[in-house]
Structure to design on (221 residues):
């Protein structure tokens, strides 16, 4: 049961920004499934109805949180070479989406159909169009980039190490004896290696986009 608010905030002191800041804190502490407007009110020291004055529903609040994160996404300058713009754009989305790890599973599957989100999507799709791929390839490469980014973000914030475990497991001795490749690979699966693994995959993805780009320019398939 949600804990009641112990200290009430003076009337008129609440703002949308304060509510959003507190919402991220509660989500990081409780997780998406454990978040509630009552818990948020307790964190803010106010009644839940005070929050509803600024956000009519939890859906409105979550929309604001996504819009806030997306507003921080920096669109690469068009003075940069195209490959660098694509690299920065993908790095930026990963950076923004992982700023609040517990909220990341929501943002990666969110439809991004609010005006602020649509403005960012329009700019990012435009980046692919600037690469000279044409409408169809631009759309497909944008989606393919999304597949890579969503997988990386979910794995880093809510993936393998934090996922459900099998009931039937093996001892460390059995693991080392029977599954040596898993043990050796495991040394590179930790959070300290996330950046290096992501950048390796990103460069491979960019290499293939460059190949497709050159083929499109030369009229090939």
């Amino acid at each position: 049961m949600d804990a009641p608010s112990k200290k009430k905030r003076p009337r008129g002191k609440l703002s949308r920004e304060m509510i959003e800041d507190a919402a991220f804190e509660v989500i990081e502490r409780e997780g998406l499934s454990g978040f509630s407007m009552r818990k948020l009110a307790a964190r803010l020291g106010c009644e839940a109805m005070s929050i509803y004055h600024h956000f009519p529903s939890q859906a409105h609040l979550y929309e604001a949180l996504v819009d806030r994160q997306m507003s921080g996404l920096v669109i690469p300058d068009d003075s940069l070479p195209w490959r660098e713009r694509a690299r920065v754009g993908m790095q930026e989305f990963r950076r923004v989406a992982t700023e609040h790890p517990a909220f990341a599973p929501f943002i990666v599957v969110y439809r991004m159909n609010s005006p602020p989100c649509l403005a960012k999507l329009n700019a990012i799709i435009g980046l692919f169009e600037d690469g000279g791929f044409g409408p169809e390839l631009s759309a497909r490469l944008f989606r393919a980039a999304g597949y890579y980014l969503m997988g990386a973000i979910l794995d880093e914030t809510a993936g393998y190490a934090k996922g459900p475990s099998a009931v039937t497991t093996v001892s460390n001795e059995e693991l080392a004896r029977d599954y040596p490749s898993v043990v050796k690979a495991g040394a590179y699966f930790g959070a300290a290696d996330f950046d290096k693994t992501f950048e390796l995959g990103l460069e491979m993805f960019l290499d293939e986009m460059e190949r497709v780009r050159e083929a499109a320019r030369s009229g090939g398939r």
In short: The chain has a mean pLDDT of 91.
